[in-house]
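fold-stage: in
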Amino acid sequence: MRILIAEDDVTSRLILENMLTKWGYDVVTATDGNDAWKKLQEEDSPKLVILDWMMPGLEGIEICRKIRENSKKEDQYTYVTLLTAKESKENIVAGMDAGADDYITKPFDMHELRVRVRAGQRIVQLQSELLETKKSLEIQSRTDPLTGVLNRRAILSQIENELSRAKRDNGHISISMLDLDHFKNINDTFGHLAGDAVLRETTNRVEEAIRTYDAIGRFGGEEFIVVLPGAKQSDALVIAERIRLKISDKNADVDGISIPFTISQGLATCNGKSTVDELIAKADEALYRAKENGRNRVEQASLQAE
C-alpha cells in the first residue's frame, strides 16, 4: 500500500521512510505542507497519510481540513495520522476535529507507529471493499441480469433525464421500442436457453449499431427500448434501420444451431414537451403497426412536428 509522509525535518523524514519501506509500504514523501497537498491532488494519490503538524506552507491540521472538505466529492477515504510534539488534550481534540483519524507524539515509538499504521491500512482496505460492494450493488440495481443492459427502471429513468435535457436545450429525443418477431416460436422450437441466448445476441448487436451516447434497456420479456438523445425523426430512422439490418442479416449461432431472428420497431420523437408515458405509448402504437404490417420493419410516430 502507498503511504504519504509529509515532514519538513530531514532526519525524521528519512527515519520514517526507511521504517515504512522496511515494513513493505510504497512511500511517497513531501518536504512541506504545500508539497503534500499537491501530491494528494494527483490521480491515485496515497490514501494512507502521515502529516507533521508543524510544517512550512500548509500545516498538517490545515491539510486535514482540506482533505475532509475534498472527501465530500469522493468516495475513497483518506486515513490521516498527525505527527506532533503537542501533547495537550486541547491540541489533540483540535487535530481530531480538523479530520485527523489518529495522532502520534514525537519522539515516536517504532512499535507504536507500526501498530497505528496497520490500523489505518485496515480501515482504508475495508473502506475500499465497501466501495466496491456499493458500486457492484448499484450496477446490479440498474442492470438486467440476463442481457446486461439497463433494466426497466433504469431505462425509464434515462428517458426522463433525456426528456428534461431536450426541453431545457430546445432539442429532440427519440426512442425505439423494439420487439423480437415470433419469439415464442424460438422458445418452443429451440428451448428457453436458446431463447435467452438470442436475447443476449439481440442486445449485443443493438449496442454495435447505436451511437456511444445512446442507451438500450430491457422493457420486459423480449421487448427493449433504445433511447436516442438529440435524434430527430430522420436521424432516428437511420439508426433504427441500421439496428434492423444488423439483426436480420445474420442468424444467431447457439451451440452450433443457426437460429434466424428479426425485430420490429416503433419510433417516437418529441422535443421534450411530453411525459415518459406519452412517448412510450406512441412508440408502442408504432410498434404495433410494424407487427401488423409484416414485421421486420420500422414504423414511425411523432408527438410534435419538428
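fold-stage: in (second)
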Amino acid sequence: MAKGKSTIIVDEHGNINIKEEGFVGTACAERTAALLKGLGASKGEETKKPEFFRHDHVGTRSRV
C-alpha cells in the first residue's frame, strides 16, 4: 500500500471528514474506503484532489 497520511475529523454532529495526503492515483480512495469500513460508516460526499488523477509510473525500460 502507498505511504501517506490520513486525518479523520469527527464533528459535533457525528459527521466524518477524512483528509488524505501523500497518495497518488486511486490509493487514497482505497485507503478511505478501508477507513470508512473500519469505522462502520457509509460513503458520503467526496472531493477528489488533482493527485487522484495522476498515476504512479511503475515499470521498467528495456533497450533492445
